[in-house]
Amino acid sequence: MVKIEEVPEKQFGLSPSDDEYTDDDESDALSVSSVADSEVSDTDPSEETLYERIVALKDIIPPDTRREISETAARTAEWVSVGAKAVGNAVWIVTTSALLVGLPLALAIEDEARLTAEEKAFLAQQAGAQQMLAPSQAPGQPTPQGLVPPGFA
Fold first, then answer.
1. Looking at the whole model, is its pTM more than 0.85?
2. What percent of the chain has pLDDT over 70?
């Protein structure tokens, strides 16, 4: 724990009128101008890093405003986190539903299309076989209706 102790002026042998912190206007103007000149000549703005500039803003922005900005940023980060989690859950639900319902449905449709194609190929094969077995007809003659036994024609 820090202990603060006041040092009386009598220990240094100064009188209140000899105090270096008096309200003398000339000394104030001189000290401000000398400090300002020394700071300007010592620091080069191009040598400052972005971090140093941001830290310097801390002195410009009042504590209440800094607290409000910090709280707003924290609330925004929390809402973004909650929103990202909700979107992730929704994507998970859609993906698993598509896999559980859509994939078997797509496989069934594909299987049905394959069976239909096989059926058409089989019918085409049968039609080709019937054409080969049927006697060749002249273009003007009527085509017989199936096989006719002899004597029934």
1. no
2. 69
The values of phi and psi at residue 73, to 5°, are -65, -40
Q: What are phi and psi of 131, to 5 degrees?
A: -65, -35
CA-closest candidate to residue 19, choices 6, 9, 28: 9
pLDDT < 50 positions in the chain: 26-33, 35-36
Gap between the Cα atoms of 73 and 81, Å rounded: 12
Cα angle 108-111-113, degrees, rounded to a multiple of 5: 110
Asked if 19 contacts 9 with a C-beta cutoff of 8 angstroms, the reply is: yes
Amino acid at position 61, single letter: I
Kindly state the DSSP code that residue 134 receives in the 8-state scheme.
S
Q: Identify residue 54 by its one-letter amino acid code.
A: I
Residue 41, helix vs strand vs coil: helix
